[in-house]
Design brief:
The complex is a heterotrimer of chains A (388), B (141) and C (359). Chain A has 388 residues and is an all-alpha fold. Chain A is built from 18 helices and 2 strands. In chain A, helix 9 (200-210) packs across helix 16. Chain C has one domain (10-356): Purple Acid Phosphatase, chain A, domain 2 (4-Layer Sandwich), CATH 3.60.21.10. In chain C, strands 5-4-1-14-15-16-17 form a 7-stranded mixed β-sheet, covered by helices on one side. Chain C is globular, with a radius of gyration of 20 Å. The chains are: A mainly alpha (388), B mainly alpha (141), C alpha/beta (359).
Chain lengths: 388, 141, 359
């Protein structure tokens, strides 16, 4: 495929450009990264996007950048239940990893943006994230800061008022498209045929994943690649207890607010109840109340806590949740709107442990190295907030 | 056979010929079958098809009483002619028996069958019988 | 690689989804301040839950969850539909426990519910428990200028019903099997046709007529009882009326048709989907040519291929909005220019998508 060779060509160029190592476009276990035709990759654009991603000036307090919630050392998450923006204002949702987000067909937990470019623009103007009233402060900086001005001219051939959020978004997306990782022990075992790449427990856990665990239909593995996400939206029963019995009223309130001009991005991140509407907030489809996008499981061992509200702390908690049929405790009620893919699994203790072991086999080598660092970083983040 | 040759040699040749023929006859009987054989074997096959039909229509005695025919009347929408194929629910290319087991484990909430279990064979006999005449289309989703 | 979908298209699709069953038409009109100037109303329609008793207090989880979800979603409709119909087959084997358990779940519906008899409710005790709990199995009512008629269209001939089987349970099992070579075709029957004739005599032919029936009141595929044996006679009784809509259950799939002045629409099951009859190749069948099939279901998602619907009668003809969890919502609406129901999105053959392919 021409695209693949071009991608690899670019990747090779990147590998030698600027001394910053980047991965090839198609890591083991993944297809080539989809690159939109109106935003091709280049080393300079990626570097620009990297700088924009880390620029704290793009916030009302001057202290919050994309990287605050998407820290490289935490596999581009922040280790928190829900993210915190300016003034440590809390949002309602857990920060998804940027790694392999390039393969997502929609962005955000509710898919309200169709691509990385679109997604990148929202947090800047969300009151609990970067808190800007509009994008003008960003444009002012990128148009006048000499380093930015030079970079935009070089990358896009644009300067002054010709630099718009489109260019900013494209650069950020371009950087994000280099954040792909495969080549995990699972990939080497399954796609490269290395029978010793996974432990016996992990191999048993793989079997559970595909069979009794019923994971593979949403967290997809295929014959030659594994995205670990079907890119669809499912209500698995997380967080519904909060709004149980009030779904009617909330749905009505939400639609009324939306008709009245309320911004979906602001509403779902500032109101915990509304956040639970999930995909319904975007499509208004009555069958999608509380449905959230299937995240990838790659590197999942390092991206705790889990679920759209960060309510599940460990992988063992997650496996228990699914094993109970989408409930914290087997005695809890079942969400009326719960996906038909969720049901009690009757896994044995051993199967559950094996499944957790398998999930740990999905960590890519470049992040596995940082595992120790990650634990330390998460610990620091939690201590800072007074958590054990 | 030319006349006038010494009878012993004729007889020997004849005996040899007969032996050869017999030898071929012994070898040939491995592949030889009559119309009666065909009828009988077809009957044996149909008996297994019937067993499969019974299993398909509740005979599996699933733990939750659900039976295959509830979603697949007359074994419709199984498409045996498309196997082996990539099976989404298994994440890989699979054979029909594996998907039958997926259904037994999931909607029927019961224990899977060994692929050579007589019940699995009977189910496949029935399913393919109801789809007779449809051209092979391996891999078709 | 082309960007798979551009932003404007993405946002527009959000709007298109709005039309495809996300909200009742009347809410859309209110929201956009349109004054339609007509007394339209909606009603919701749930059907074919097939609640199945396993043992003790255990019921088949899959069918229970299907009904529970449909009830929960139907309760989200805002503004509320005027009433709710239930299209038949509450139970699977007609057992009291099944009917009672199903009605318990249905009692969660916010609104007035009326019921249609299904064969799975009927053939164990000939409808005795059903009628005790729900009243007559055929009746009519009027609402906002529309005449509604409910038929028990799953009867069959006397011999099969009363003399053929050694026990009631056996009779129920025989009727429960869809592909039963020893089955018997559904019918409305002479007595009820006479009743229907009487009811219709009281109704002006300009009054929109909506008939609720479990069997299709057409002849689609006899092998699976997608069939009403006296369909032509029933249709003849409906012929004099200008706007007639028949809504039927039983088939567990999207079907629609137009025969003369009568529009036919199937309703979905909350329990499980059935194959389209052409996928059984050993026998010919007659699915209405108009029908664009629903998207194929992935059986991993137990709600896929199931659903419920709300029906908008703002024109006196029906717009049927199908809500299909884990699937693609659909709208099949009467098109005045074409003179028959039309799938709003996919009727044009060029607009078909791969998941609609059946073979």
């Amino acid at each position: 495929m021409a695209k693949r060779s071009r991608g690899l060509g670019v990747a090779c160029a990147l590998l030698f450009a600027g001394g910053v190592p980047r991965l090839p476009a198609a890591p083991l276990g993944l297809p080539p990264v989809p690159i939109p035709s109106d935003n091709p990759q280049s080393a300079a654009k990626i570097a620009l996007g990297d700088r924009l991603f880390h620029d704290k000036r793009f916030s009302s307090t001057g202290r919050v950048a994309c990287a605050n919630c998407h820290k490289a050392e935490l596999v581009f998450t922040d280790g928190l239940k829900v993210s915190e923006g300016i003034h440590k204002l809390k949002g309602t949702r857990n920060a998804p990893t940027v790694v392999n987000a390039a393969y997502m067909k929609t962005l955000f937990w509710d898919g309200r943006e169709p691509d990385l470019e679109g997604q990148s623009q929202q947090p800047f103007v969300n009151p609990v994230e970067m808190g800007l009233k509009n994008h003008d402060p960003i444009l002012k900086i990128v148009r006048t800061d000499p380093k930015y001005a030079a970079a935009f001219r070089r990358v896009f051939g644009k300067s002054g008022a010709g630099i718009t959020m489109t260019e900013v978004a494209r650069a950020i997306a371009s950087f994000e498209r280099t954040l792909v990782s495969g080549d995990s022990p699972f990939d080497r075992y399954y796609f490269a045929g290395d029978r010793r790449a996974m432990t016996a427990a992990q191999i048993r856990g793989f079997e559970v994943f595909v069979n009794q665990g019923r994971c593979v239909s949403c967290h997809t593995i295929e014959q030659t690649q594994a995205l670990f996400t079907d890119n669809r939206f499912h209500n698995i029963g997380v967080g519904f207890k909060r709004i149980r019995g009030r779904e009617n009223r909330l749905a009505r309130q939400f639609i009324a607010a939306k008709r009245g001009g309320a911004n979906v991005d602001v509403t779902v991140l500032t109101q915990k109840d509304m956040s639970e509407m999930g995909r319904f907030a975007v499509t208004e489809n009555l069958t999608q109340i509380g449905a959230f996008k299937t995240p990838t499981l790659r590197n999942v061992a390092l991206t705790a806590p889990y679920m759209h509200d960060g309510s599940l702390e460990t992988l063992a908690d997650v496996v228990d949740f699914y094993n109970n049929g989408g409930r914290l405790r087997k005695t809890d009620p079942v969400d009326d709107f719960q996906s038909g893919g969720i049901r009690p699994l009757n896994l044995t203790k051993r199967q559950k442990a094996d499944l957790v072991a398998f999930l740990k086999a999905l960590t890519s080598p470049q992040y596995a190295r940082r595992g120790g660092q990650r634990t330390a970083a998460v610990g620091a983040a939690r201590r800072e907030r007074g958590q054990p | 056979m030319k006349r006038g040759k010494p009878e012993g040699r004729c007889a020997a040749a004849g005996a040899l010929a007969a032996a050869i023929l017999l030898g071929f006859a012994v070898a040939a009987s491995a592949d030889e079958f009559t119309r009666q054989d065909l009828e009988r074997w077809q009957g044996e096959y149909m008996a297994v098809v019937k067993k499969g039909e019974a299993l398909f229509h509740g005979g599996l005695k699933s733990t939750n009483t659900v039976s295959c025919d509830q979603c697949h009347p007359d074994a419709a929408d199984i498409h045996p002619e498309t196997y082996p194929k990539f099976q989404r629910q298994l994440g890989r290319v699979a054979v029909l028996g594996e998907m039958i087991n997926w259904c037994i484990m999931n909607p029927l909430q019961s224990k899977p069958l060994a692929l050579d279990d007589p019940r699995m064979v009977a189910l496949q006999a029935y399913i393919t019988f109801e789809r007779r005449g449809v051209a092979l289309a391996p891999g078709k989703h | 690689m082309r960007r798979p979908i551009d932003r404007r298209e993405f946002l527009k699709r959000g709007g298109a989804l709005l039309a495809a069953g996300a909200l009742p038409m009347s809410l859309v009109e209110i929201a956009f301040g349109k004054d339609s100037g007509r007394e339209g109303f909606t009603f919701a329609y749930l059907s074919d839950s097939h609640i199945t008793h396993v043992r003790g207090r255990e019921f088949v989880r899959n069918w229970d969850r299907g009904l529970i979800q449909a009830v929960a979603e139907a309760n989200l409709l805002d503004p509320r539909p005027d009433f709710i119909m239930y299209g038949g087959d509450i139970a699977q084997l007609g057992k009291r426990e099944e009917i009672d358990h199903g009605l318990e779940i249905l009692s969660g519906l916010r609104g007035e519910v009326r019921y249609v008899m299904g064969e799975h409710d009927y053939y164990l005790d000939l409808g005795e428990h059903w009628r005790r709990r729900l009243g007559p199995d055929h009746y009519s009512f009027r609402h906002k200028g529309v005449q509604f008629i409910v038929l028990n269209s799953i009867l069959t001939d006397d011999d099969w019903t009363h003399r053929r089987w050694p026990s009631a349970a056996e009779r129920m099992h025989q009727m429960a099997r869809l592909d039963n070579p020893q089955g018997s075709p559904f019918m409305v029957g002479e007595a009820q046709r006479a009743w229907l004739r009487g009811e219709l005599e009281k109704v002006d032919t300009d009054t929109p007529l909506v008939v609720f029936s479990h069997s299709p009141l057409q002849k689609i595929y006899k092998g699976w009882n997608f069939w009403t044996d006296d369909a032509e006679q029933v249709q003849a009784l409906l012929k004099p009326f200008r706007k007639v809509t028949v809504l039927y259950g039983h088939v567990h799939q999207i079907q629609y048709n137009q025969i003369g002045n009568i529009s036919f629409h199937s309703v979905m099951a909350t329990a499980w989907p059935w194959p389209y009859p052409q996928s059984f190749v050993q026998s010919p069948s007659h699915l209405p040519k108009l029908t664009v099939p629903m998207d194929r279901a992935n059986p991993f998602f137990e709600r896929d291929g199931t659903g419920w619907q709300f029906i908008d009668l703002h024109t006196g003809n029906a717009d049927v909005h199908y809500l299909l969890p884990d699937n693609r919502n659909r709208v099949v609406a009467y098109d005045t220019a074409a003179g028959h129901p039309v799938d709003r999105e996919y009727q044009d053959p060029k607009r078909r998508i791969p998941p609609q392919t059946r073979y």
